[in-house]
Amino acid sequence: MILVKPDIKPTMSGIGSLAYRFVTRRFSTLLIASTAGAFTLNYTLNKATDLYWDTVNKGKQWKEVKLTIQ
Amino acid sequence: MQRAVAAGTKKFAIGVGIAAAAGAGGLVYALEKSVYASDHVVHPYHLPWSHSGKFSSFDIASVRRGYEVYKQVCAACHSMKFIHYRHFVDTIMTEEEAKAEAAEATINALDDRGQTIQRPGILTDALPNPYANKKAAAAANNGAAPPDLSLMSLARHGGDDYIFALLTGYFDAPAGVKVDEGKAYNPYFPGGVISMPQQLFDEGIEYKDGTPATQSQQAKDVSAFMHWCAEPFHDTRKKWALKIAAFIPFVAVVLIYGKRHIWTFTKSQKFAWKPVKGREPPKQH
Description:
The complex is a heterodimer.
Chain A: H1 15-24, H2 27-56, H3 62-65
Chain B: H1 2-32, H2 60-72, H3 95-104, E1 106-110, E2 116-120, H4 134-140, H5 152-155, H6 159-167, E3 184-185, E4 193-194, H7 215-230, H8 234-267
Antiparallel strand pairs in B: 1-2, 3-4
Helix pairs in contact in B: 2-7, 6-7
């Protein structure tokens, strides 16, 4: 039986291959990336949802009503 | 052959799944849309509450006015035993306001020697019960004890709509309906005859924030307050619903990718059994 080695081109391009070369190939970089990603996603998601919440409920919340009380 | 059977099983499973989902959905829809025609009651109309949206918070200004209505009108007969003054702090009142409200109330308590005393309330006190017990409440109200209002918003069909309709729905009884002395006619109350006479009137109270206290304004505000009491976690709940709904797409991408990654091996395998000469399987007869 003859094994034919698939022809892998050394020049990879695209986001996927970049991510593989610099992030997902080693566990250390993957761990750093996923930790940073978790913090970033948590922060942005909270910011975005709070902004949406405060926009649709403008003027109705206690923090706003509090300012109108002498 | 095997693949065809597997595909057939998969299609069957999908079909069963869709049918089950449609059946469950249809059942829920049918139960929701029931006519309740057997009840001797007028069903409350739907109102556009500012907190009824999926991601809508309470209108706290309205809740605050509702507390004024409760305190000046409802509290004369109805207790709110699950609500304590501390619940108001930084949710609908400042700490000073809540302390002042508590201090205005007279609380039945015990002193150090176990004697019953009356003292001004503090933040950890519950809203005072107007009657010593249920029998005293019934005796003072023609035999019908006024129910506790802590959870009333969630305890009646129609919720806020029902409370609003009931409070603003007093009419003269139609011919043929007998209303006893001390009772009132209200078509939104099951049976039509209610022990509570009309309580809310235009300019019946005066709001601190200067809002004109019409009957419907008071009914709206006290409905909002009662809903706030029944569901103090309402705003937090809806905010978390929003956050989780926003997070689901990200989780879905990770889970779908992970599933496909793990299944790649299984899905791309192909097994072939080739008979080796001299080791053929036994022939079927």
